[in-house]
Amino acid sequence: MASRHVVAAADEIPPGGRKIVNVRGRQIGVFNLGGEFFALINVCPHQGAKLCEGAILSHLVSDGPGDYRLERQGEMIRCPWHCWEFDIRTGQSWCEPNDVKAKTYNVTVEPGGTLAKGPFKAETLSVAVERDYVIVEM
Amino acid sequence: MSASEAMAPAASTVGAIDCDLHPAVPNAKALMPYMDPYWREHMLRRGLDSENYDLMAFPPAAPINVRPDWKPASGLPGSSLAVLQAQALDPLGVSLAICNVLHGAQAVMSEDLSAALCRGVNNWVAGELLDRDPRLRASILVPQHSGELAAEEIERLAGDRRFVQVLMLAMAELPPGRRQMWPIYRAAEKHGLPIGLHAGSTFRHPPSAAGWGSTLLEDYVSYAQGMSAALNSLLVEGVFQKFPDLKVVLIESGVTWLPASMWRVNKTWRGVRSEVPWLNRLPADIIRERVRLTAQPLDAMDGEALGRVLDQLGSDDMLLFASDYPHWHYDGADPVPPGIPPAMLKKMMVDNPRATYSRL
Ligand code: FES
Description:
The structure holds 2 protein chains of 2 kinds.
Chain A lengths: L3 E6 L8 E6 L2 E8 L2 E6 L13 E7 L7 E10 L6 E3 L16 E2 L1 E5 H4 L16 E6 L1
Antiparallel strand pairs in A: 1-10, 2-3, 3-4, 4-8, 5-6, 6-7, 9-10
Chain B lengths: L2 H4 L10 E5 L6 H4 L5 H10 L34 H12 L3 E4 L11 H20 L5 E6 L5 H11 L5 E9 L10 H9 L4 E7 L14 H21 L2 H4 L5 E4 L6 H15 L10 H8 E4 L8 H9 L7 E2 L21 H7 L2 H6 L4
Parallel strand pairs in B: 1-2, 2-3, 3-4, 4-5, 5-6, 6-7, 7-8
The structure holds FE2/S2 (inorganic) cluster.
């Protein structure tokens, strides 16, 4: 069964920001997209680069040659090695969304007060009652 | 019985559709009755009527361009309908054959003269070939350095359903995907005409990307790379997105280079596709849907390896039977290369040509 891990205080990761954390020996990238949090494994499904350390970019869309638009700004991560792009919300690759995906994890934000009731694991953080915390399920 | 006689043909050509046959205009004089009065006089004033307008890419007397037993006693190979019937149409028993006339009309520098010569050649094809043998169909030659004039020529002939394709040379002044060329594709798509990209060049640049070669050998080998570059240009510039009903046939440039090329374009696209956001599907999938290839020459290795490479095409719909008469790609009576996987072979003789050329 998945266990719940407190990985950061919510205000440590501002909108557009990210934090790479360790959970059960695995590196996870936690992203804040306009107040919603998402987590991806920090391993590119292509050849294993540290995916979550790449550039955070937008969805490029086009209706045809010569048409260039940005959508969903800041919601794509581009692998630092071979520039494959992944949707931070779903882990799906832009090029082959159904076949090439980065693993995602469920993320929730909970007030420090309720965390006292557990079960959760706060391996590296001490929890203060008055702050909100980012919880990753693994 | 010799070994070659004992070998059964790979597939019967009886009733098949030959997608690349090369009749030749005997000489410029033969074109004169088919030219507009202004340009006929222009030709006479300049003495241009005594030129032959051979394409430098296909010197007609070079052995590779005419099989020894098809060499006529006089005149250019492919220039006599009776000989062409006796050497290709009748013995193969094809039901239809698409004439692709290789002619310098498409390469001359003046766009207007190029257009006038293309009109002349197309009229000659209609009068001397299509009117005389009901098995024949043809490609429209266009002055391909002018998108506008090329589109006009397509419009002029579109009503004649015996013209089934638009013919362009793979290498010209611009890579074929560039937007200046789009009037050609707009007109072709509108009239249900595939674009036939034929091997060769109008020699505005070296046929090899490494510079001018010294020999026909270098040029000829480079035509496959030129075709690959032309295909990439169409793909990347978004021609297949812009013209969703357009099909492209790669003619006489080999086939076996394509799987490796598709792999490479897929791989590179994954990393640099942000240059061309309209290219929003795996390039190889677009190629499989929209691009066809004539199967002579295949550039075939021995049978078993060939089967593996052709499987990597990932589609049985892509190959089109072609004799490529009178070019010298095979000996004997069987133009179908051995080693093509059976499922592919079955479709390439009739079904694929019919699915490609909506006017057949
Ligand atoms: S390792 Fe990420 S794109 Fe190659």
